[in-house]
């Protein structure tokens, strides 16, 4: 029943997180442990019998705010967690309850997206960006031709197919030991979290939605509760002409109970000073929280990170709609520009620099 309201365990020592996370991503080029606010330092200990024997005593960097660059090192899952094997391919859809898309379909989709972008970019209302020299249409053509793309991009269906296969496999392995009654699919959104063609200038330095969301989780004591939470940023197209951003994912244990209670926690007057400190004097009456018990985990997991925009149903029983041009191309431009920003928010779990999704303990 849906309800709506207005891995592997590493024995950790976690550096205490006392500051609101700012959503910035440390350099991906260093092998040194990151000490920025979006990751924790976890040290192996042989004193935990339930854990695998540590390979070394060196601290391991764990990212809990992850960009696509944090996901590229996740390994291909084994056969028991590989959705390409678990689901029969039909290569035509990524809708709920259907099959996993094929590489051939993704390459055709990238070619279509590239052609649509070329037409949209010459429009007078095409947004300016902080990186006008980056030609997304050419990058998508490289992905469509399998021709050594020069960068990663969430705007590419081909690239996201591989990311999704590896990420979903890691999540499937992580949750297989969790009782089915103890976790749920969860969503979080605010009406003000929007992107539209009316944006006149896109700049990746002004994107605070992940920071605000993480602050909400901290204020609601979700961060420090037992269990784990993994949520992905996604966009739904609204027929009113904008994209509604939301976080989708899975939540377990006491964190799930705290997550469901977020609207009441935010509405509590006693928390008003804390909310102002973390997020400023802005009303949060538009916060939407949803939770749904899984029925078929392997089929439903693809919905937490769809390969593309999904339609938004404005009213119960209302019609679905696609994302028409040039709206869809504007969203692709936005997603590509913000590719270094965190699209996955985690608590009680994280991604190591060597590409493992692991459980952690929160401070």
3D structure, described in words:
This protein has about 375 residues and is an alpha+beta fold. The chain has one domain (about 1-5, about 15-360). About 30% of the residues lie in helices and about 20% in strands. It is built from 11 helices and 15 strands. It has helices at about 70, 85, 105-120, 135-145, 155-175, 210-220, 255-260, 260-265, 270-280, 295-300, 325-335; strands at about 1-5, 10, 40, 60-65, 65, 130, 185-195, 200, 230-240, 240-250, 285-290, 310, 345, 350, 355-360. The longest helix is centred in the middle third of the chain and has 19 residues, at about 155-175.
Largest sheet: 8 strands, mixed
Q: What's the domain count? A: 1
Rg result: 20 Å
Low-confidence regions: 1-57, 89-94, 314-321
Q: What distance lies between the first and last C-alpha atoms, to the nearest angstrom?
A: 32 Å
Number of helices in the DSSP assignment = 11
Residue-averaged pLDDT, rounded? 78
Please provide the ordered H/E string of secondary-structure elements: EEEEEHHHEHHEEHEEHHHEHEHEEE
Strand content: 15-25%
Structural class: alpha+beta
How many beta strands in the DSSP annotation?
Answer: 15
Helix content: 25-40%
Cα shape: globular
Keywords:
363 residues, five-stranded mixed sheet, 15 strands, disordered N terminus
């Amino acid at each position: 029943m849906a309800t709506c309201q207005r891995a592997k365990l590493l024995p950790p020592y976690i550096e205490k997180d006392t500051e609101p996370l700012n959503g910035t991503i440390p350099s991906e080029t260093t092998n040194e442990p990151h000490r920025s606010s979006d990751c924790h330092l976890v040290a192996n200990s042989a004193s935990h019998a339930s854990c695998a024997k540590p390979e070394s005593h060196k601290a391991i960097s764990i990212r809990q705010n992850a960009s696509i660059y944090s996901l590229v090192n996740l390994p291909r899952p084994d056969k028991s967690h590989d959705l390409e094997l678990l689901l029969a391919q039909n290569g035509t859809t990524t809708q709920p309850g259907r099959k996993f898309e094929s590489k051939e379909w993704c390459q055709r989709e990238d070619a279509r997206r590239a052609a649509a972008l070329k037409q949209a970019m010459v429009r007078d209302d095409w947004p300016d960006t902080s990186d006008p020299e980056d030609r997304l249409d050419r990058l998508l053509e490289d992905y469509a031709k399998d021709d050594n793309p020069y960068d990663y991009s969430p705007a590419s269906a081909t690239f996201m197919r591989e990311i999704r296969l590896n990420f979903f496999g890691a999540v499937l392995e992580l949750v297989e030991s969790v009782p089915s009654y103890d976790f749920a699919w969860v969503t979080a959104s605010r009406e003000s979290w929007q992107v539209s063609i009316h944006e006149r200038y896109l700049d990746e330095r002004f994107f605070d939605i992940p920071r605000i969301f993480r602050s909400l989780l901290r204020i609601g004591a979700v961060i420090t509760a037992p269990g784990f939470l993994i949520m992905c940023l996604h966009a739904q197209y609204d027929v009113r002409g904008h994209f509604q951003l939301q976080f989708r994912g899975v939540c377990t244990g006491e964190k799930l109970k705290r997550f469901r209670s977020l609207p009441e926690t935010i509405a509590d007057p006693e928390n008003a000073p804390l909310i102002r400190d973390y997020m400023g004097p802005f009303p949060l009456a538009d916060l939407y929280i949803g939770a749904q018990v899984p029925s078929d985990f392997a089929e439903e997991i693809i919905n937490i990170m769809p390969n593309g925009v999904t339609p938004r149903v404005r009213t119960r029983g209302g019609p679905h709609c696609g994302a028409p041009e040039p709206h869809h191309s504007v969203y692709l431009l936005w997603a590509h520009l913000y590719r270094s920003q965190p699209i996955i928010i985690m608590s009680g779990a994280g991604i190591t620099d060597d590409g493992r999704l692991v459980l952690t303990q929160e401070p």
